[in-house]
Amino acid sequence: MYDYDRSDGSSTAVFAFLAGALIGAGVAILLAPRSGAEMRQWLSDYAEKAKDQMGTAMESGKEYLQAGIDRGKEYMEGAQNKAKEVGEQMVRQGERAYNKGQQKF
Question: Does this model's pTM top 0.70?
């Protein structure tokens, strides 16, 4: 079964990456001695790289989410099987008790 106490921190890593990217961009803009045209080109290039990295992060997030959904389905199937087993045991015990009661009469 899945251990819900265990976490690999993927979402934390994505948020840390985004925060670092924003802070880095802000510092770079403030400290970069570039002309207006150079700065626009640099920002355009930076935005394109960030877009690519964000796409990669989104794909990783989708895969992580799908893995969680799959684990949840496995957990539910296991719980359903266990409930069915317990129900069948209860029926058998009820039948035995009924048969014992019938024998006494």
Answer: no
